[in-house]
Specification:
By secondary structure, this protein is of the alpha/beta class. The protein contains eight helices and seven strands, in the order H-H-H-E-H-E-H-E-H-E-H-E-H-E-E.
Length: about 210
């Protein structure tokens, strides 16, 4: 284990240790063969800190998977808060609902099944935060929809801003990687958003909507 890995383990142990419910949810998802693409525990804690700092009560997640990230988010909202999360895969959505029930947060989570780009235009604007963690090729489309749905001062959050380090390999021009690059460029240059990337796990883009 190198020093960087030691420091990561230190942060996880001290600040972001999974409780029994989260550990069980992660284990169930692994046993069920879900893709190993869920957020890490330290990223979950960062999301919670950001959401609490922003006073977020109404949050949108694009890409539910099995609900692991949604549990971290819902716990940060507390009673009266609401997480709306979108998942295209019906089996993943079913597993997510079970995860939310297991974690005791199902009363504050709504799971919408379907293609995100078909659902987003029909959502009510005014979200306090939006977390994007879905397919990468249409990220620019998700970006445009998110800025319309976010309130002024709201948080735009996006996982995999580094895409396993491939964003800096300019010889790799696959559509999903180009989608991440285009998203990052847009977030960096849009005057409506003040943004940066935190080097947590695979890069967490964090932006604040500063203008309409």
């Amino acid at each position: 284990m190198n020093r960087s890995e030691e420091l990561q383990a230190y942060v996880v142990e001290l600040f972001a240790a999974e409780d029994a419910v989260l550990a069980e949810i992660r284990r169930e998802h692994r046993d069920a063969g879900l893709p190993d693409i869920a957020i890490s525990a330290e990223e979950g804690r960062v999301l919670q800190v950001l959401l609490r700092a922003a006073g977020a009560r109404r949050v949108l997640e694009v890409g539910t998977l099995g609900g692991y990230s949604g549990v971290w988010i819902a716990r940060a909202l507390g009673a009266g808060g609401k997480l709306t999360t979108i998942e295209i895969n019906p089996e993943f959505a079913r597993m997510a609902r079970r995860s939310f029930e297991k974690a005791g947060v199902s009363d504050r989570v709504e799971v919408l099944e379907g293609r995100a780009l078909d659902i987003l235009p029909f959502l009510e604007p005014g979200f306090d935060a939006i977390f994007l963690d879905a397919d990468k090729e249409p990220l620019v489309d998700y970006y445009r929809a998110s800025l319309d749905l976010l309130r002024l001062g709201g948080l735009l959050l996006c996982d995999n801003a580094f895409f396993n380090g491939r964003v800096v390999d300019l010889t790799d021009t696959r559509p999903d990687i180009e989608g991440v690059r285009a998203f990052n460029r847009m977030a960096a240059t849009d005057p409506r958003l003040l943004a940066t990337v935190l080097p947590v796990r695979d890069g967490l883009l964090v932006g604040v909507k500063v203008a309409e």
